[in-house]
Write a structure and sequence with these properties.
Shape: globular
Oligomer: single chain
Structural class: alpha/beta
Largest sheet: 8 strands, mixed
């Protein structure tokens, strides 16, 4: 039952080239930076990543992206990541853009063993009809486009069928965790982290504070340890290394 692994490098040692990863976080919040850095240092590449966004500034998944280690991204936000946009438009990166709520539910459904579900989000658009550019040819043309999806009517409203997502591995960050893998997420880092953790066949969690079993009130657990296979305890320096994406000050 003790799922603690000594180092981040050891925790990701069996992630192979070409693996699929569900990665938690939103912007700079709740991103498993230490595990991502460990993957970078191992030289792992050809990755298919499922995450809300692909890193920001020079942290998170942006580290792997800039090194050319990511082959495909399933996400919902590009934002101000210029390298992401450059690789996508240049035909170097395959990108499946999904409505944000749909992405969250696809991860949750995959983790809950639900193969597919219907949602009204995207009906009447290329999300349902197909034709979204997944990969460009580098000359402005579309090399690969999204296929059409099944649309059905229920009680007079049309819904599009979306598939649940399962990945080979999941990388998440929690504010607190115990040796059994029970996790607690702080504030906005509770967005995609629990969902990504559910979707992974093997889920690895870096935790800012490691406690013994019983150190977390059962009512306070956000994600039960059944979904987590490995836990890495961060050092105080690693836990406190949190960047600010946009600093706002008043005079």
């Amino acid at each position: 039952m003790d799922k603690v692994v000594a180092t981040a490098g050891e925790a990701v040692a069996d992630v192979p080239d070409g693996a699929s990863l569900a990665v938690g976080g939103f912007g700079l919040s709740g991103v498993p930076n230490v595990l991502i850095q460990a993957l970078y240092e191992r030289g792992t590449g050809g990755l298919s990543v499922v995450s809300n966004n692909c890193g920001a500034m020079d942290s998170g998944l942006a580290v792997l992206l800039a090194a050319g280690r990511i082959a495909r991204v399933t996400g919902s936000y590009i934002g101000a990541n210029k390298e992401f946009a450059r690789q996508y438009l240049g035909g170097e990166l395959e990108v499946e853009m999904i409505p944000q709520g749909t992405l969250a539910e696809r991860l949750r459904a995959g983790g809950a063993g639900i193969p597919a579900f219907y949602t009204p989000a995207g009906v009447g658009t290329q999300v349902a009809d197909g034709g979204l550019p997944w990969r460009y040819d580098g000359s402005g043309g579309v090399a690969l486009a999204s296929p059409p999806k099944e649309v059905r009517e229920f009680d007079g409203t049309e819904y599009v069928l979306e598939r649940g997502i399962r990945t080979d591995f999941a990388l998440v960050r929690a504010a607190k965790g115990d040796r059994h893998g029970n996790l607690v997420f702080a504030k906005s880092s509770r967005n995609f982290n629990p969902l990504a953790a559910m979707a992974g066949q093997v889920t690895i969690a870096e935790v800012e504070e490691l406690v013994e079993p019983g150190g977390i009130d059962p009512d306070a657990v956000h994600l039960p340890g059944i979904f987590v296979q490995r836990v890495v305890a961060l050092t105080p320096e690693q836990a406190g290394d949190k960047k600010i994406e946009k600093r706002t000050v008043t005079s």
